[in-house]
């Protein structure tokens, strides 16, 4: 019937398109004017759910329930709910007003010269949907606000735009960047249209703010994110069914309980009610500031579910999973928050944290101990600053529109403010501010400081200064020399305050009581006030904003005074670093960047000039934070070991000039990622100085660590020493890019930078590069023209290494000189070994450099044992001369550090870059001058190039990503190896869909490789299987999960009972046939221990990075992570911000699963895919995991009998 109706509508539209459009427009206008509001509300109640409902549920089921209850309630019930709801806040109203205005602007531009059907003002019901379907079958170009309705969901996309035979969804968003909420809405609209049999384009468009209408758009590939939406929608419908079954949903007690660890804005206009309910039930998160989700789970597991129970814990009580000093702090925090009857309670912390006796003294309200002041000595040139920013203005980062600074003048606190109503004024305000701080700092010989509260100000300064090299360097220099003091960091390290949060608004109650009652009393109010001023230019509003900013600056100054009074013991003076003058090298870099920007080269090349310095900045910043942090704080950081003491000499120096081995003790449980061989620094916990050392061994069970060093402080903390000297790479980049600017001749670097298509000797190519070479990539490489770059993308198991070996062997027969580079020495050694196996002529093979730690089964060790390989510790002049003097073909393996040297320029005919998806483009710019041709081999869908710094767009790309110009390699620019010999078709199908847009196919031979049928937990013979391990927080740190480790051991034991069948042959699975992949080294150790407990040895267990390039019939991947609702949850950002997002990185998942030849087993928490998506990258990660669950051939649940008792 539906198809018949559609056919009639299409015929009508074809015969009388103009008349049909007019009829629909008239009907829409009649509906707008005639439909009563009550009928509209009733229509909404009939269908009820929308994408907004689902998104609200994802953040707060409590708020979603009450929103739905308010919609369905009537009379007194509705009035009671309305009375408990917060009034609309000014910022939300402002966003709604500006959003409507933005949509009107976009409409005006989008409708230009188009035929439009306007269905706005209609109802989300069946009749409205019928009008939408009728409009879709006219010749209209655009349908505006088309109502859509199905059995459970409704929606109205802003615009449906005709694109050929399909309809594409366009949505206008005031935001300057696309968010998961925007994409979820698009997925909902697409699903509604598909259910109505509408041909929808897989691409939707977000029209973003921050410029003219249609100036900033974001094209969204909906299938990439659809699985996440489907999973979220499924969870919501279960929730909706419970709501429908509730006889009185408007009774607040029937709603789901609000979560105490939810973000403060998650509950919307029910935030006050949620806070009230959390206080009434004495929720742990409300009663104890700073509590993490992992700590809360551990406490609840031991029966501690309220703030009262936490405060009343006995000093001797131990909570498994929470360290003793951390538990003392939590108990003290809970006590202080319950002791605020006579003002805000507080307690000073010692550098070692909270002493055992401190909790008793807090309980008895004894006098506070005298502590050393954590602030520098007061100076007349000290200043206190605060910035006000509007995220709705300017470019993607918004605008800092008010710059306030307070300072002492004639004994009183003076205040100055500068307005920045446009981008030019903002940059000038930043320059004046930085120069003012610099003058104060220099005039005081480094004794004056600029105080602020929170990380926002420093981050805003860096954002505004970005792009101005001189301003960036001044900021970095002032930061490195300690000119800025973040009082939030000081308060968190040295104080416990009896408040539920440590915001300035809360902390200032210590010295102010209640905050000033002004019209503008928080940052959101300031944004609203400034937007109102932009609308009507009322000068009184600016005065109010200045008063608010001044109040914050003065409060910051008062906090400094209070801290100095509360901590009466003055601290010892520190040496102040002298400012380094701008070097000639820095001046040359500035000139080079400017010249590149004025040239025809791509802008991204300018970001490579200072790439390595930007990479180093976070390292040094983190190091400074670690050097200043108290030992108890470092104990909570899994990258460090805090509070080590009782050093004992284990081994004296073997000979003069060598170092000794000392053993130190630390309190347990303390989890760390540090392991034997790591370079570290020993931070003296009393003097706060540091010395270099290296780890010999770490025993987490006994709480012992052995270090190799000259001497050890009596009490110290161990922090990583991650610094890698980038020389000679920065100088080589400048040399090579300057050469490009000064010469117009063809060069391989120019081809790379400009992404030029490869050319070949005596061969012209159009379209498929391999067609003239009969599909032979080796012949294409041999024929590569000088000055050309050829990219080869090799997905898992497609023979990329074999191709490289065959090409290298052919080039050796041609007498060429070839350098092989890669991100690491092991990869280089593996590639050289495979090539030597195929080379059948005399060559000079050299391996330059090596890793500090190389095991006996490492490719480097095996390569060094070959008789025809010369190993050199480093590149030097002697090696350069040997290479130039030989008449033999040359095959040399080295990293960029060797190939970027001046005496390597022009030394080779070819440069092969293996795993080019992990080599930064800046590094290739440094070493490109060593060869006349470049072959990039890798897969940008696997492990990415490492990146720590903040770079301009494209500046952090790998060399393969830069040259390809996106995620897909076009056939006219390189070679895509599209047949995998490794992956079984069932496994290949999943990986191909998610990572390669379906282009990767399995070879028929791969289908013959399967496992015998299982009889235990797992029965799958090939493909992807998922084992769900419910996470209750037991036995878990941020980087290891012993429950999952026990399940992995059970799965491995079961697999070892099965056979591997390959065609007509069959044999038992052995330990060599199984790889176990983990995200963290700590979890690797947990899995190894669980395997040993089951009597299983010699199974290869390691991280993704270790196994890239390896394969086995079976891979067991353990994700070791629970879902995280917040990105700032300490559990989710453990180990240096590498939390759930690190575990779910799609490229790491691709590497982990694609090591398997026939069966990949994913061991994970069942609700891991239900985490909150804070960005599109995170949403894609969750979508990939959701889609993997849909594609799995077997999903089983590991019960307690399988998990065992760790």
From TrEMBL:
SUPFAM superfamilies assigned to the protein according to its UniProt record, in alphabetical order: P-loop containing nucleoside triphosphate hydrolases, Ribonuclease H-like
Superkingdom of source: Eukaryota
Signal peptide per UniProt: 1-20
InterPro entries in UniProt: AAA+_ATPase, Coronavir_polyprotein_1ab, DNA2/NAM7-like_C, P-loop_NTPase, RecB_nuclease_TM0106_put, RNaseH-like_sf, SF1_C_Upf1, YprB_RNase_H-like_dom
Alphabetic keyword roster: ATP-binding, Helicase, Hydrolase, Nucleotide-binding, Signal
Chain ranges of the AAA+ ATPase domain: 786-955
GO molecular function, one term: ATP binding
Name listed for the protein in its UniProt record: AAA+ ATPase domain-containing protein
Organism: Pelagomonas calceolata
Organism phylogeny: Eukaryota, Sar, Stramenopiles, Ochrophyta, Pelagophyceae
């Amino acid at each position: 019937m539906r198809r018949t109706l559609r056919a009639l509508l299409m015929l009508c539209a074809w015969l009388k398109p103009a008349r049909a459009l007019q009829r629909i427009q008239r009907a829409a206008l009649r509906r707008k004017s005639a439909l009563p509001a009550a009928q509209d509300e009733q229509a909404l109640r009939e269908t009820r759910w929308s994408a907004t409902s689902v998104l609200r549920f994802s953040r707060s089921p409590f708020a979603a329930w009450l929103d739905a209850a308010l919609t369905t309630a009537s009379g007194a019930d509705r009035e009671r709910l309305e009375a408990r709801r917060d009034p609309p806040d000014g910022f939300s109203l402002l966003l709604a007003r500006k959003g409507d205005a933005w949509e009107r602007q976009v409409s005006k531009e989008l409708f230009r010269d188009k035929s439009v059907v306007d269905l706005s003002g209609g109802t989300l019901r069946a009749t409205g949907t019928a009008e939408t379907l009728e409009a879709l079958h006219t010749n209209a170009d655009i349908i505006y606000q088309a109502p859509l309705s199905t059995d459970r969901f409704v929606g109205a996309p802003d615009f449906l735009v005709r694109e050929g035979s399909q309809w594409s969804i366009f949505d206008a968003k005031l935001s300057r960047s696309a968010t998961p909420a925007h994409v979820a809405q698009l997925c909902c609209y697409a699903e509604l249209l598909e259910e109505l049999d509408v041909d929808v384009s897989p691409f939707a468009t977000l029209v973003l703010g921050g410029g003219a209408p249609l100036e900033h758009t974001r094209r969204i590939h909906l299938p990439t994110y659809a699985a996440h939406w489907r999973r979220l929608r499924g969870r919501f419908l279960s929730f909706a069914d419970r709501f429908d079954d509730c006889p009185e949903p408007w009774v607040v007690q029937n709603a789901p309980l609000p979560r105490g660890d939810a973000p403060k804005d998650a509950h919307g206009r029910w935030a006050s009610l949620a806070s009230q309910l959390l206080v009434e039930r004495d929720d742990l998160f409300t009663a104890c500031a700073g509590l993490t989700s992992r700590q809360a789970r551990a406490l609840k597991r031991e029966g501690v579910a309220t703030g009262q129970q936490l405060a009343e814990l006995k000093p001797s009580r131990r909570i498994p999973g929470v360290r003793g000093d951390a538990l003392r702090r939590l108990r003290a925090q809970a006590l202080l928050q319950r002791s605020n009857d006579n003002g805000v309670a507080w307690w000073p912390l010692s550098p070692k944290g909270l002493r055992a006796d401190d909790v008793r003294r807090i309980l008895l309200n004894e006098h506070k101990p005298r502590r050393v002041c954590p602030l520098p000595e007061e100076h007349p040139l000290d200043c206190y600053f605060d910035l006000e920013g509007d995220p709705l203005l300017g470019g993607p980062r918004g605008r800092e529109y008010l710059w306030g600074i307070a300072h002492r003048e004639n004994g009183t606190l003076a205040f100055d403010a500068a307005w920045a109503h446009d981008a030019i004024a903002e940059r000038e305000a930043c320059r004046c501010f930085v120069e003012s701080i610099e003058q104060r700092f220099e005039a005081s010989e480094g004794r004056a400081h600029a105080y602020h509260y929170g990380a926002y100000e420093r981050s805003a300064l860096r954002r505004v200064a970005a792009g101005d090299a001189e301003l960036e360097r001044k900021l970095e220099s002032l930061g490195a020399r300690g000119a800025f003091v973040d009082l939030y960091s000081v308060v968190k390290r040295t104080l416990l305050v009896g408040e539920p949060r440590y915001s300035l608004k809360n902390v200032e109650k210590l010295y102010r009581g209640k905050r000033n009652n002004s019209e503008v009393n928080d940052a959101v109010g300031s944004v609203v006030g400034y937007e109102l001023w932009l609308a009507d230019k009322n000068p009184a509003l600016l005065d109010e904003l200045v008063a608010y900013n001044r109040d914050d600056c003065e409060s910051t100054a008062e906090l400094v005074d209070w801290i100095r009074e509360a901590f009466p013991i003055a601290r010892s003076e520190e040496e102040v670093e002298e400012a380094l003058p701008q070097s000639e090298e820095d001046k040359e870099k500035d000139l080079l960047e400017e010249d590149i920007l004025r040239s025809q080269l791509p802008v991204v090349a300018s970001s490579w000039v200072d790439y390595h310095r930007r990479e180093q900045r976070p390292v040094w910043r983190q190091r400074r934070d670690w050097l200043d942090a108290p030992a108890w704080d470092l104990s909570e950081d899994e990258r460090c070991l805090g509070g080590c003491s009782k050093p004992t000499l284990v081994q004296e120096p073997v000979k003069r000039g060598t170092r000794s081995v000392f053993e130190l003790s630390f309190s347990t449980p303390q989890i760390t990622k540090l392991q034997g061989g790591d370079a570290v620094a020993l931070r003296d916990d009393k003097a706060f100085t540091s010395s270099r050392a290296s780890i010999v061994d770490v025993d987490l069970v006994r709480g012992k660590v052995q270090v190799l060093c000259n001497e050890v402080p009596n009490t110290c903390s161990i922090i990583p020493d991650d610094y890698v000297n980038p020389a000679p790479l920065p100088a080589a980049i400048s040399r090579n890019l300057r050469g490009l600017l000064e010469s117009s001749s063809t060069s391989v670097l120019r081809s790379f930078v400009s992404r030029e298509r490869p050319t070949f000797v005596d061969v012209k190519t159009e379209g498929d590069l391999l067609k003239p070479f009969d599909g032979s990539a080796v012949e294409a490489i041999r024929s590569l023209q000088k000055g050309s770059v050829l990219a080869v993308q090799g997905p898992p198991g497609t023979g990329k290494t074999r191709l490289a070996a065959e090409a290298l062997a052919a080039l050796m027969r041609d007498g060429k000189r070839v350098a092989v580079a890669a991100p690491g020495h092991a990869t280089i050694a593996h590639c050289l070994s495979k090539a030597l196996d195929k080379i059948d002529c005399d060559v000079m093979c050299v391996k330059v450099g090596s890793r500090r730690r190389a095991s006996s089964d490492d490719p480097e060790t095996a390569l060094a044992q070959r008789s025809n390989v010369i190993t050199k510790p480093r590149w030097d002049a002697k090696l350069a001369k040997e290479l130039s003097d030989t008449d033999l073909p040359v095959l040399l393996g080295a990293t960029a550090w060797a190939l970027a040297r001046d005496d390597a320029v022009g030394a080779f005919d070819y440069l092969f870059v293996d795993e080019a998806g992990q080599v930064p483009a800046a590094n290739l710019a440094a070493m490109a001058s060593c060869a006349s041709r470049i072959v990039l081999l890798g897969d940008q869908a696997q492990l990415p190039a490492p990146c720590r710094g903040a770079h301009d767009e494209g500046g952090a790309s790998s060399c393969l990503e830069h040259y390809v110009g996106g995620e897909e390699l076009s056939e006219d620019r390189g070679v895509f190896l599209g047949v995998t010999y490794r992956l079984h078709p069932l496994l290949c199908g999943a990986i191909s869909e998610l990572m390669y847009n379906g282009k990767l196919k399995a070879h028929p031979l791969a289908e013959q490789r399967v496992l015998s049928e299982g009889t235990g937990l797992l029965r799958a013979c090939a493909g992807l299987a998922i084992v769900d391990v419910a996470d209750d927080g037991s036995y878990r740190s941020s980087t290891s999960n012993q429950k999952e480790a026990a399940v992995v051991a059970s799965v491995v034991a079961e697999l070892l009972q099965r056979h591997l069948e390959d065609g007509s042959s069959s044999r038992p699975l052995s330990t060599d046939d199984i790889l176990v992949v983990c995200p963290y080294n700590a979890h690797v150790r947990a899995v190894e221990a669980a395997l040993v407990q089951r009597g299983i040895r010699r199974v290869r267990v390691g991280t993704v990075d270790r196994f890239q390039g390896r394969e086995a019939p079976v891979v067991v991947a353990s994700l070791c992570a629970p879902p995280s609702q917040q990105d700032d949850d300490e559990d989710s950002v453990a180990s240096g911000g590498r939390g759930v997002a690190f575990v779910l990185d799609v490229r790491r998942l691709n590497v982990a699963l694609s090591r398997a030849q026939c069966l990949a087993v994913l061991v994970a928490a069942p609700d891991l895919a239900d985490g909150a998506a804070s960005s599109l990258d995170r949403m894609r990660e969750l979508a990939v995991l959701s889609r993997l669950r849909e594609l799995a051939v077997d999903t089983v649940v590991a019960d307690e009998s399988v998990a065992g008792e760790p």
